[in-house]
Description:
The chain starts with a helix and ends with a helix. The protein is mainly α and 96 residues long. It has helices spanning 3-24, 36-63, 69-95. The longest helix is centred in the middle third of the chain and has 28 residues, at 36-63. Helix content is 80%, strand content 0%. Helix 1 runs parallel beside helix 3 (69-95) and helix 2 (36-63) crosses helix 3 (69-95). It has one domain (3-23, 36-95).
Amino acid sequence: xxxxxxxxxxxxxxxxxxxxxxxxxxxxxxxxxxxxxxxxxxxxxxxxxxxxxxxxxxxxxxxxxxxxxxxxxxxxxxxxxxxxxxxxxxxxxxxx
Length: 96
């Protein structure tokens, strides 16, 4: 896999997180078009895409010494979205 694929996965993951936040803040639970199944699909989909994209970016950065700036930016973006999603999961496990 190349840098473009890894960065695309990370950016799609960020888009899914933004869609998830907008769906959660769209109003009262009874009036939402996106309910529990939709939320879980967006959450787990974003987490899987973030982890796969981050691992691919990490592979590019570690095993390709000539990897460019886009590989490193993709790695940082992937680590960020992965940390946010895993943090939400850990908070949900210990608070709820």
